[in-house]
Write a sequence for this structure.
């Protein structure tokens, strides 16, 4: 096992993978079923021919820069386990911080908070919120039927009950109001296409791009949210760090009190907005 792991890490380094040692260990853990101390104790044992064949297959896919999460099949995220495949964006660590900020929002103290997760993808934000706040009434929306199918599988996997709606942003629930509108919309400027890590090319394009400046979806969502937030309700958005301050400034000219929040690396990535009275 030790030899396979060393060779695998070497091939992953040559392929430009950012975390070669940890990816090699994860693949070994997934295929052999041993992890942590159990794997260490067995590292001088030979691999079975079945495990070796399977490891060679998943390593070749990782060397070709297929995301590790597809090879493992799931990710632990925000207190829930989420199945991951090509139907939806792989949930990112920075979005866990958005979940954390929204859960701690001082304006949202009522346990039965009504939440809309717009562009739910795997269901990450909707399910993570409900896991932490079981009395919440959570609606998860997406334009993509495939993403919603995956999100529904993830709700079942976690034993959580969420309302799903398919359509453009908040249009499927027009006329309804929410205490929290939460979204990690597609936010990359279209011109970023072609300059992303190979892993990101596996995410659906519908999940990535937000128009010429990346703010197309976020702007439209804010416009809808202005009429669909309950009094005192809050809009939380994740954005590209290039765009958080510009969007907050724009919202301030349109009747919002908007503030920028940083992620764990100090980048301006989130906007919290409430309607100014
Ligand atoms: C960046 S992904 C976020 C997925 C998930 N919320 C997360 O944080 O991992 C954006 C999501 O928005 C969805 N989407 C794109 N355009 C949309 C639209 N006009 N209305 C609703 N959802 C949309 C995509 O299908 C995708 O699932």
């Amino acid at each position: 096992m030790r030899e396979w792991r060393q060779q695998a890490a070497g091939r992953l380094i040559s392929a430009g993978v950012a975390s070669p040692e940890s990816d090699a260990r994860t693949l070994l853990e997934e295929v052999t079923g041993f992890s942590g101390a159990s794997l260490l104790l067995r590292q001088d044992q030979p691999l079975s021919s079945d495990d070796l064949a399977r490891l060679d297959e998943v390593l070749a896919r990782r060397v070709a820069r297929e995301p590790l999460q597809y090879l493992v099949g799931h990710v632990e995220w925000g207190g829930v386990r989420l199945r991951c495949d090509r139907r939806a964006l792989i949930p990112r660590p920075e979005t866990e911080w958005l979940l954390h900020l929204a859960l701690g929002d001082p304006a949202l103290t009522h346990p039965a908070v009504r939440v809309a997760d717009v562009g739910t993808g795997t269901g990450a934000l909707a399910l993570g919120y409900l896991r932490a706040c079981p009395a919440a009434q959570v609606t998860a929306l997406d334009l993509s039927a495939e993403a919603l199918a995956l999100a529904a599988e993830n709700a079942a996997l976690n034993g959580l009950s969420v309302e799903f709606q398919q359509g453009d942003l908040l249009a499927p629930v027009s006329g309804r109001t929410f205490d929290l509108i939460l979204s990690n919309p597609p936010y990359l400027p279209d011109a970023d296409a072609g300059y992303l890590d190979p892993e990101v090319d596996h995410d659906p394009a519908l999940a990535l791009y937000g128009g010429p400046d990346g703010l197309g979806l976020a702007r439209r969502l804010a416009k809808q949210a202005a009429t669909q937030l309950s009094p005192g309700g809050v809009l939380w958005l994740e954005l590209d760090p290039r765009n958080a301050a510009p969007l907050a400034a724009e919202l301030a000219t349109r009747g919002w009190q908007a503030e920028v929040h940083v992620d764990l690396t100090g980048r301006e990535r989130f906007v919290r907005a409430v309607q100014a009275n």
